[in-house]
Amino acid sequence: MVLAAFSRPSQSTRFVEIDVQRINIVEPDGKLRMVISNRPRSIGPIYKGKPFGYEGGGRPGIIFFNDEGTENGGLTITGRRDSTTGRYRAASSWSFDQFDQDQILTLEYADNNGRRRTGITVADRADRNIYDLVMQRDSINAMPDTAARRAALQRLFAPVNGVPLAATRLYAGRDTAKSAVVNLFDPLGRIRLRLRVDSLGRASVDFLNDSGRVTFSLPDSARR
Question: Rounded to an integer, what distance in angstroms lies between the CA atom of residue 76 and that of residue 58?
Fold first, then answer.
């Protein structure tokens, strides 16, 4: 009886099977670290514990949060066939966010009834706080639908000192034309080098200028 009085009760519970609509993984202070949910109970964007941007209900899967309780990536999966047309759409995405910004590394599958793309994307993001940007955007959107509103949005998301808000730097994967591709982009997000093996097995390398025009190709240019 004395030993039993001083023993610590178990803090874990075992389940063989559990059905839930949402699970919140939290730190001792209540900060979110991970949310697993269905679509209706999925969470919207969170910055340091504060919701912003848009409501939840559209991202079934897993959302991750950093030490400050800010969203920093997630895994989402969708897929559905139209019962009338028989056509389907499916998508899966595993993304990682830059600190205080949006996604910069993404593993993605997108399928529009057989038009299929699968690959990995690496991007640059400007060092501009995403919460501040969204708050400014929402404030501008509250303005009347005028030319001034549209101009203000353009200024908000325009490059700052030549640095764009976001720019793809690398894409490697399989495109909708069934080609295996590696595309390399400059800091402004313009493709400058493309390696490709097409659906017939033909290999090529294209160099492009900043206008998107091919300036040199292999093997074609080497043959001339």
Answer: 10
The total of structural domains in the chain comes to: 2
Give helix 147-157 / helix 130-141 axis angle, nearest 10°. 170
Query: Cα(172)–Cα(174) distance, rounded to whole angstroms?
Result: 7
By the 10 Å C-beta count (0-12 exposed, 13-18 middle, 19+ buried), 105 is classed as middle
pLDDT tens digit sequence for 4-53: 555 566 678 999 999 999 999 999 999 999 999 999 999 999 999 999 99
31 within some domain: yes
Asked if residue 187 and residue 116 are part of one domain, the reply reads: no
User: What per-residue string of b and e applies to 150-172 under the rule 16 or more CB within 10 Å gives b?
Assistant: eebeeeeeeeeeeeebbbbeebe
Q: Does 4 reside within a domain?
A: no
Regarding whether 213 and 144 lie in a shared domain, the answer is no
The residue type at 151: A
